[in-house]
Amino acid sequence: MKQTVPALALLLTLAACGGASTDAAKTEAKQEAAVATGTAYVIDTATTSVQWRATHKGGFAPRFGAIKVTDGTLNVENGAVTGGNFEVNMNSLTTDPASVTEEGKKSTDLDGHLKSGDFFDAAKYPTAKFVITAVAPFDSTKGKSLLPGATNLISGNLTLKDSTLNITFPAQITVTDAEVTANAKFVIDRSAWGISYKTEGSPENWMISKDVEIGFSLKAAKK
């Protein structure tokens, strides 16, 4: 019998050039990881999808693409996720060619720019990580969700480059005996992790929105 319960969600990291708007994830200092008890469910990296979307100031020149999750586990006890973590390969970041419309520009050029020292420095920091710290029911009267049908609030420590912060966002989660599925869409501020183009106050950095929209569709199966 299928039931919707508190559970984990996935995040993963982002892209750098810019933004979305609405419903920013609550961002705080790093917190203690949740104790993972119960049965382990392994994230299916082949079917898990993580997307990013970013823009220039005012929502101009939207860019979007994907990043791969390479490893992860969720723990479920009494029908609820108790903890978990996952990793993302920043070198897998790609830009959808459909989002690059300027003549003479290629999506692969933006891939290289985002993975360079200008933004994520994927050669030095190849892995981003998310560790669950808390799970709670989502109350639609007290918060908004970019994704309709959110059931839970997920909190976790997100590590990008050499910085770790705790974020909280709504997610839609379903648990069965065989698998856990989770979907989410939310916005983070890249500058909170010190991700800026050139310098924080430079015109080049100012032109890029600080907001980055993250979306994911996660599936994890019982070991």
TrEMBL record:
Keyword Electron transport appears in the UniProt entry: no
SUPFAM superfamilies given in the database record: YceI-like (SSF101874)
Record InterPro entries: Lipid/polyisoprenoid-bd_YceI (IPR007372), TTHA0802/YceI-like_sf (IPR036761)
Domain Lipid/polyisoprenoid-binding YceI-like as annotated: residue spans: 40-221
PANTHER family assigned: PROTEIN YCEI
Organism: Chitinophaga jiangningensis
Pfam families from the UniProt entry: YceI (PF04264)
Cleaved signal peptide residues: 1-18
Protein name: Polyisoprenoid-binding protein YceI
Coiled-coil residue spans: none
Assigned keywords, A-Z: Signal
